Amino acid sequence: MSLAVPSHAPLWSRRDATVVGVVLALGAVLVLAGWFFAAGRADAGDQLVFVSLALVGALVGVTAVIAWVVRGRRAISTRRTLLLGTPPPPKAEGARAVELVAAPNGKWFHRADCLLALGRNWSASPRVAHEKAGRLSCPGCRP
Q: How many helices (H) and strands (E) does the chain have?
C-alpha cells in the first residue's frame, strides 16, 4: 500500500472483502462437511477424520479474519504516519561525564553533560566539595 492514501478511502477494498468472504465461506463449508459426515458415524474412530476436517475449516476461517484485521491495521498505520509524520527518535542516553558541576549557589550538582547544566559554564569540582557545600546530586543525571 502506498503512502498516498486519501483519508476518505476505506480501510479495506472490495477485493479484500471478497477474498475474506470466500475464504470464510470455504472454512464454513469444511466445518459443515465435517459435521455432516461425522454425524452419521457411531464409532468415534470413524468420526476423527471428519472432526479434523472441521478443525481445518475453523482454522481457515480464523486465518481469514486475522489476515483481514492485519490488513486494516496496516492501513491505519499508514494513515497515522501520513497524519503525524515519523515517530520521534529513540530516547537519548543519560549523562555520562565524569566532571561534576554546579551553580555557585545552586542546590544540585550535575554531570557536566547533564541537560540541566549544558551551556552554563559552571566550573568543575570534586564530589566532596559539592557535598561539603550542601548540594544534592541531580536526580536526572544521577552523578
A: 3, 4
pLDDT digits (tens, 9 = 90+) for 77-135: 888 888 888 877 776 666 677 899 999 889 999 998 888 888 888 989 999 999 999 99
Which SS3 state, helix, strand or coil, does residue 38 take?
helix
Q: Of 26, 27, 22, 24, give the one whose Cα is nearest residue 55.
A: 27
Q: What sign for the dihedral angle of Cα 43, 48, 53, 59?
A: positive
pTM of the model: 0.52
* Measured distance CA(96)–CA(115) in Å, rounded: 11
* Cell, residue 91: 530516547
Report DSSP state, residue 71.
H
The burial class, CB within 10 Å (0-12 / 13-18 / 19+), for 101 is: buried
CB 107 within 8 Å of CB 79: no
Is the CA virtual torsion 21, 22, 25, 30 positive or negative?
negative
CA distance 137 to 143: 6
